[in-house]
Amino acid sequence: MATAELHTYPHRHLLGIEGLSADEITVLLDRSEEYVDQNRRVDKKQSLLRGRTQINLFFESSTRTRTSFELAGKRLGADVINMSAEASSIRKGETLIDTAMTLNAMHPDVLVVRHPHSGAVNLLAQKVDCAVINAGDGSHEHPTQALLDALTIRRRRGRLDGLIVAICGDILHSRVARSNIQLLITMGARVRVVAPPTLVSPLFERMGVAVHHDMGSGLDGVDIVMMLRLQTERMQGSYVPSVREYFHFFGLDYQKLAAAKPDALIMHPGPMNRGVEIDTDVADDIDRSVIREQVEMGVAVRMACLDVLTGHLSNDPPRKAAAAE
Predict the structure, then answer these.
(1) Catalytic residue numbers?
(2) Nearest 5°: phi and psi at 16?
(3) CA separation (Å) from 131 to 30, 107, 186?
């Protein structure tokens, strides 16, 4: 593969990992590496986005992602505004498109959006002139999470190509799983998903992953174990008999982890439910758990995305909104 320096990121938005090439993903990861170093300095701030306005519009509650995007924007010098559905006109009956048109009239440069419905961010991107970053839409995609996971793995293992990654837990409702599968396969990794039959669908096999319903076979010889939480807020009906039984069969503990490679890394996008999908001792394993490192990489990745996307913006007057890519 050609080096990232010979390629650019040509898209107006970051709406998902699907459709991105390996070179485009590498551009974002390489730029993120630069911001990891910057974030470890005493003086973390620069003026790259001075005069730019970033609006974080979250229709779902979030701590890690919203805080990470806010910190990323401020470290780059942007004016950052946080909006939540609870405090917006959405609760008064305003439609998503009306909200988009209202925000567009304020001439923001970047709109970071989280929404409970798949495809909503894409729709909004078609109605605004600014760059749009998908911070998670329903069960569809969460591209910056996949990028920060990939950066964490690449920094620890030096590569993504050829690694065996097991994504375990509530695959069915997980936008994190979908984005990670797209990215890892594009970058040459081999992906397995491990879940009870009720929490995975035939769609994932068509995405090119191996589906396992047993942690023993699913974790056999893997390089990376990525755990996911049970997304009970998206479940209607009973998907697992009980939390206790779920942990017994699918919760990550040292007994199940023994099937993986001895140096396999342990990951979790957060928030963690200790004793449900992961044992406390495993989550806090100082040698193998990179969960806290994932949080650090999140700020760097979001700084890189803001940097790359605003690089496409001009100082010309707003034009008519174009269709999202």
Answers:
(1) 64-65, 92, 114, 142
(2) 180, 170
(3) 20, 11, 24
